[in-house]
Specification:
Length: about 300
């Protein structure tokens, strides 16, 4: 079973938002109430469901499924006004532009507020607002920034914070340290840079979280056309294809095979390098469909990710 908070980490462009949405959609299809919490310049997920982009306030995009887009400014207002009931203090102090400039310069404040929001959504939100989410699927920034979130409690604790920030840091640290409350998955593609970054960050994530990610998810996999050994002559089915009569066409087809074989090899490299997590492949939609829509891609990913929520 998945814990209430799941971080979907990965290099930019590998399909983090697709995987986060697919994972959330699969859980929602089981009758659970699920939120995809983004931290992006603009909400990219709502338009996939023919909904306008949303902001900090969560908005429904499908039955049982909502999404929101985090901003530090909105989180600070929500924390002081709604959570602490300090509206006058917020307006007089926190909302002051000079104070805002100083707080934005504070190292780790944005990250701590983001993590605190994830913790609050799965703990105190029910009592304070009547909001109840079975799962919050976190779609953070790209790997370098996203993975650093998991180390934020240790970093901020070294700053000697006091008062409310210290309490918030302790709560976030407790959430991240508890496998019953949080987990991470890592998304990659069988591309060279994505594979290298996943190999680099996997042990770092395991160290900061205190346990390995649940899975490495290989998006845009070529498993649908495997086996693909490096030499096409060793492939079981490739020699049986009718070769084009034209030399240029044959050379082009050979290049296509070599490209796919390299992608297959990198996917196997990831499986060999990860420790303590499962490996899940999501087939490249372009190998099965001429012009897949965003909804088609999410549906394909949802089907592939089923082992994550059906595992005991």
């Amino acid at each position: 079973m998945l814990p209430p908070v799941v971080f979907v980490l990965g290099k930019g462009g590998v399909g983090r938002s697709t995987v986060a949405t697919a994972l959330a959609a699969g859980l929602a299809s089981r009758g659970e109430r699920v939120l995809v919490a983004q931290w992006a310049v603009r909400d990219a997920i709502s338009p996939w469901f023919d909904r306008p982009p949303t902001g900090y306030t969560a908005a429904p995009i499908a039955p049982g499924l909502e999404t929101m887009n985090f901003t530090t400014e909105a989180a600070l207002e929500d924390y002081f006004v709604q959570h602490l009931g300090m509206r006058v203090f917020f307006r007089a102090v926190i909302a002051n532009r000079h104070v805002q400039r100083a707080t934005r310069a504070a190292p780790g404040l944005d990250e701590l507020m983001f993590l605190g929001t994830m913790m609050w959504l799965t703990t105190m939100a029910r009592a304070e607002r009547g909001w109840s989410y079975d799962h919050v699927i976190v779609d953070p920034p790209a790997m370098g920034h996203g993975a650093s979130l998991l180390a934020m409690p240790q970093i901020t604790s070294r700053l000697g914070l006091g008062g409310l920030l210290a309490v918030e840091c302790e709560r976030v640290a407790a959430m991240l340290a508890d496998p019953a409350r949080s987990a991470a998955v890592v998304v990659t593609t069988p591309d060279e840079l994505a594979v290298e970054e996943t190999s680099e960050f996997w042990p770092r994530i395991a160290r900061d979280l205190g346990r390995p990610p649940l899975a490495a998810i290989v998006n845009r996999s070529v498993e649908a056309v495997e086996p693909l050994p490096p030499d096409a002559r060793a492939c079981a089915w490739w020699p049986g294809l009718a070769p084009p009569a034209d030399d240029a066409a044959r050379a082009g087809l050979a290049r296509v095979y070599a490209h796919l074989a390299r992608r297959a090899g990198r996917a196997h490299h990831i499986v060999e390098r990860i420790a303590g997590g499962a490996a899940i492949a999501i087939d490249d939609a372009l190998l099965a469909e001429d012009a897949p829509t965003a909804r088609d891609v999410v549906a394909r990913a949802t089907a592939a990710l089923q082992p994550l929520w059906s595992a005991p």
